[in-house]
Amino acid sequence: MAQARSFGTKQIRNVAVVGHGGSGKTTLIDAACFASGTTVRKGDVNAGTALTMTTPEETGHGMSMQLAVAHAVQGDSKINFIDTPGYMDFAGDTAAAVRVADCGVVTVGAATGVEVGTELAWSVCDRRSLPRVVFVSMMDKMHASFDRALGELRESLAPGAIPVQLPIGEAAGFRGVVDLLTGKAHLHQPDGSGKYLEAEVPDDLVDDVEEWATELMETLATTDEELLDRYLEGDEITVAEKLAALALAVAEGDAVPVFCGAAGQSYGVLEFMERLVAIAPHAGASEVEATSEEGEAVRLRATDDESASVLVFKTSAEPHVGELSLFRVCSGMVANGTELRNAARRVSERINHLAIPQGRDRVEVEALHAGDIGVVAKLKSTQTNDTLSAPANPVTLVGADFPEPDISIAVKGAARADDDKLGEALSKLHDEDPTFAAEFNPELRQTIARGLGELHLDVSFARMKRKYGVSVETEAPRIAYRETITAEAEGRGRFKKQTGGRGQFGDCWVRLRPRGRGEGYEFVSSIKGGVIPTKYVPSVDRGIQEAAAQGVVAGYPLVDFEAECYDGSYHSVDSSDIAFKVAGSYAFRTVAEEAKPVLLEPIVEITVTVPDEYVGDVMGDLNGRSARVLGMEPASGRTVVKAQVAEAELHRYASVLRSITQGRGTHRRKLLGYDAVPPMRAEKIKAEAAAEE
Ligand SMILES: Nc1nc2c(ncn2[C@@H]2O[C@H](COP(=O)(O)OP(=O)(O)O)[C@@H](O)[C@H]2O)c(=O)[nH]1
Ligand SMILES: [Mg+2]
Fold it and tell me: Is 45 close to ligand 1, i.e. is its CB under 6 Å away?
């Protein structure tokens, strides 16, 4: 393996490339690395050969589903590009990438403009106040329009978006860019190298260039009083000074510089990188937040001489390679042979075969400086979002803010052999991907897998089959119904058995009364005169509870009732705990049947957030699900709808919502409690339960 050049903290730029699926992220990174010479072959997304496409699932679907890292070298600096998936289903990796980046590059297709995925990526960056720049991609594509893309950006996401380049020509006529900082035109070479010839601005662009260059200069001048004075006095401001001012404005979130190009032809990628290293914060620009072993907040400097801390932001197990962990050295240095502590899991890990990632490949290095991104194979027990740190100063870093998986499906092994390995395979998937979770639910008697969407779940199962050889079948999760009684009733339970020697005898009279929703179970004894000896009364209670857990309508737990034991009898020899327990359960079953038992179902409160134009469709759909709307609140172009609805009505709701809102609606759910199932559906549930018996 080739030895890689070494880069110090201030020479490193970690950038997360984010944006809508298909907006050119993967192509941009491939072209940038190729143009900078860190990769020798120009890849192609459509052929599955782009540098940051690493898994067969991605090659198969022709799109990114996992984050991947590749680096380019620009002058003295190294850019670690973190490629991310653009789809909501894989938003976990976007969150992880944004966590370890110091700057975001948001790609916006010149022909498509701002899309759902752009908004999503923007909001993920917002959550970390990540400085960002925009690359308007695919300027060579039919219908490409820089002005439109810029207008949409300014209007909906970034009032501070400011062009630092203008395109020369658009669509088939796209020939290069004008650098608004230098006022020079770059005419691109059609050889795919990314190289350009410097030229004078074409006549028809002179006015536009003048106008935008002034706006850019005015924006920059307001970052610094001295600069403003000099600008107003007509002083010459150097390119280096402009870049320094721009870097400051980007770091503060006051400006979002907008670049453009056509990475498919390598147009614009070299100058994009040149500017990016000047504008994006370096890897030591911010302090590192962590928690000490005592649980106290601590801050570490992102420098080599600080004690080491490393955040693992992605693990993925691949056959033949084993487990790979991508990590950012947040503070200190890491070298081959370094021993680090995983404080949360109480294990030590030794770093061997330290490498930097280059897409699918790894390039071994001796050491990594603070701020760099590395990859290491075969850590023993360290998983995504774990911290490794110097044993002398164990800390836990703030991890990525992963979205909660809330789309569920029930899974079972396709064959007996699959079932045996299912639990282990599911837990490995979870370790790799915190937005995938699965657990056996004893009440539903199903294994419930949860993820961020149906595609996410499908791809996770495909990966499970490929990597661990476990195939699954999926089905709708069962609903955790309950039962309750709606009337008071009373009756007797008597258990008498004569077998050879000692017999069994228990006898009790029980009254059942309904209680309010969520009030639970209560047992009351009003036994007088010792007709049931005190020591046996708790057994009656236990018998009732055990029988209630089995239900009387359709086999679901019967809840929210009071049981009063008010009479009974005993036998001085044959009575026992067991006998009274059985008597209690008999009494319960007899009396509950008389107490007008009904089925209850889980009711959830859903909070749906959608752009205003979809509110009508969303309400119509909720009506069809017999939802009760609790309220609607406007929130800057969006409406938040709160409604109460039966969980049984929400199967695959996330997908439906996505399709009626073109992916722009989101929802959250919260269990509110239980309510009676409407009679029609209750009959169906009873019939299903009977059939299963
Ligand atoms: N015409 C044109 N097509 C491009 C360009 N960049 C990317 N594409 C195509 O657009 C599609 C999506 O690109 P990709 O890089 O996968 O986007 P991502 O999903 O954001 O990573 C692919 O078919 C690319 O070949 C470009 O500069 N010009
Ligand atoms: Mg991609």
Answer: yes
482-595 — its CATH code? 3.30.230.10
Domain boundaries, the chain: 11-279, 288-397, 407-475, 482-595, 600-691
- How far apart are the CA of 547 and the centre of ligand 2, in A? 56
Alpha-carbon distance 625 to 351, whole Å?
54
Q: Please determine, looking at this structure, whether the domain spanning 288-397 carries the CATH number 2.40.30.10.
A: yes
- CATH (residue range 600-691): 3.30.70.240
- Cα–Cα distance, 485 to 600 (Å, whole number): 10
Identify the residue whose C-alpha is closest to ligand 1 atom 2. Answer: 138
Architecture, CATH, for domain 407-475: 2-Layer Sandwich (3.30)
In this structure, are residues 523 and 546 in contact, taking their beta carbons and an 8 Å threshold? no
**11-279, what's its fold?**
Rossmann fold (3.40.50)
The DSSP secondary structure of 432-475, one letter per residue, reads H-TT-EEEEETTTTEEEEEESSHHHHHHHHHHHHHHH---EEEE
Indicate which residue's Cα is closest to atom 23 of ligand 1. 46
Mean pLDDT of 276-296: 94
Residue bearing the CA closest to ligand 1, atom 28: 138
Ligand at minimal distance from the CA of 23 is 1
Mean pLDDT of 394-418: 90
Tokens coding 656 = 């439906």
Of 150, 163, 186, 177, nearest in space to 261 by CA: 177
Regarding the beta carbon of 53 and ligand 1, being less than 6 Å apart is answered no
0.85 cut: is pTM over it?
no
Q: Which pLDDT belongs to residue 302?
A: 95
Structure tokens at 421: 């390995």
Find the mean pLDDT for residues 253-258.
96
Whether pLDDT at 322 is above 80: no
Lowest mean pLDDT among 14-23, 48-57, 204-213: 48-57
Q: What is the per-residue pLDDT across 429-438, written as a single tens digit (0 to 9) for each?
A: 998 899 999 9
Query: Binning pLDDT at 50, 70 and 90, where does residue 3 land?
Result: low
Check pocket membership of 22 for ligand 1, CB cut-off 6 A: yes
Q: Is the CB of 68 under 6 A from ligand 1?
A: no
Instruction: Report which ligand 1 atom has the smallest distance to the Cα of 23.
Output: 20
